[in-house]
Amino acid sequence: MIDPKAVLSDLDELRALTADADGAQRLAWSPTWLRAREWLESKLAGLPVERHYDAAGNHWVTLRGASEQALLLGSHLDSVPNGGWLDGCLGVLGGLEVLRGFARDGVPPCTVRLVDWADEEGARFGRSLFGSSAFAGTHCIDADRIRLDSNGTSLEAALRACGVEVDRIGDCAVEAANARAYLELHIEQGPVLEALGLPLGVVQGTKGVERWAITFSGQEAHSGSTPMDARRDALAACARLALEIRPIARKHPQSVATVGSVKTFPGIVTAVVGRCEATLDMRDLDGNVLAQMLRDAREASERFAAEEGCTVEWSKIWSIEPIPFDPTLIGFCDDAIRDVAGTSHRLPSGPLHDAAEVARLGIPTVMMFVQSLRGLSHNKAEDSDRTHLEQAVRAFDLLARKTMSSMGTHA
Fold first, then answer.
1. Could you report the per-residue pLDDT of 308-355, keeping only the tens digit for each?
2. In 3-state terms, what secondary structure has residue 136?
3. Please, are residues 75 and 64 in contact by the beta-carbon 8 Å criterion?
4. Which of 39, 117, 230, 384 is 20–30 Å from 317 (CA)?
5. pTM for the structure as a whole
6. Tell me, what DSSP letter sits at residue 109?
7. 322 φ, ψ to 5°?
8. What pLDDT, on a 0 to 100 scale, did the predictor assign at position 408?
């Protein structure tokens, strides 16, 4: 038996402890984040659980069951600066209540493990999914140790101050032993469920990402004396691409594409732009669609560059393949949501989550989304209807129990 209202009470308590007038301030590796983790420890009092921090700083809470096979529940307590009251922590505290429910029933058939992943957001050092990537073995110690925050502090130094040695973060891979499924509850952070009038949804997987830096090169010239037909305006070529990106993405129902930053040189009002640097982010759940969008964007950039008398170069920033979730668990999640809310809906996740790294390791994974009001997240206006949150906790508990029953069948 679970108490969804207890989750709301915990969320309110955490917000009072770690937020200010501008929103949540649980930046990873900061004193406020450490305070939140100490608070979570206090919530474990009286539970028959083991707890420890692994080599990457992930916090594990284990309820031993009759079998060593483990059902993992997780998310993250860290937030972006001035973040919302639900992002990440809903999954941790919802998972905690599900674990409490199993504990109230006695010894569960399988072991239940709750994990608070370290530094999911990457807001301070630009390294998202830090703890879960170490767990999955997709980390890069050489790149991570030299990352700097805005004050010049290295990630290696920040980790050490929290008792984590960067050279050993890969040791946390031992935590994957006996893991048979991973479930994560999260707010949608987008407008789809609200537009459909639905409280909950099943996540099909996380979209693949192609992230590139694009540089158009033309010719700097005086803005007063250079005729329009004689200009080699790098900004003009870039602007045409930025507009073309939208119809490229709209060819595919679930695709998104964003030109997120533009820098011009020399960047003064009296000069034609000689160089323009832009960033492009493209996402889709289908790898073939993502590849086609990238091809279309490159062809468009070359066409616009030629028409404006410029050249264009592309440089990859980062990419990750689409990561589909487990079909059986997706079915269980559909069933759990229908049992609670009557109607379920499947949708992809544009943002990445720790669940993506767990799934990359081959552990069957699924996520459940709860509707986000106005589709807002990563700011203090982030919110969800409290009734929907209670429904989410009940449905998540049902999902966990359906999953555990399946694990017991295959023990």
1. 999 999 999 888 899 999 999 999 999 999 999 999 999 999 999 999
2. helix
3. no
4. 117
5. 0.91
6. S
7. -60, 145
8. 62
With beta carbons less than 8 A apart as the criterion, state whether 200 and 192 touch.
no
- What's 169's DSSP letter? G
Closest among 295, 302, 282, 281 to 237, alpha carbons compared: 302
Domain boundaries, the chain: 4-206+322-409, 208-320
Q: Tell me how far the alpha carbon of residue 231 is from its chain's centroid.
A: 43
The topology (CATH level 3) of 208-320 is Alpha-Beta Plaits (3.30.70)
pLDDT of residue 410 exceeding 50: no
Q: Are strands 311-320 and 208-217 parallel, antiparallel or unpaired?
A: antiparallel
Pairing of strands 200-206, 179-187: unpaired
Q: Quick one: DSSP state of residue 43?
A: T
- pLDDT of 53: 98
Q: What is the largest CA-CA distance in the chain?
A: 83
Q: Distance from CA of residue 224 to its chain's centroid?
A: 47
Q: Report CA-CA distances (Å) from 86 to 163, 339, 362, 384, 393.
A: 27, 24, 28, 8, 13
The amino acid that residue 282 corresponds to is: M
Whether the ω angle into residue 266 lies within 30 degrees of 0, i.e. cis, is yes
Tell me the CATH number of domain 4-206+322-409, given options 3.40.630.10, 1.10.10.10, 3.40.50.720, 3.40.190.10.
3.40.630.10
Do 139 and 360 contact (CB within 8 A), yes or no? no
**pLDDT attached to residue 195:** 98
Does the pLDDT value for residue 411 go beyond 70? no
Q: Residue 110: enclosing H or E segment and its boundaries? A: strand 110-116
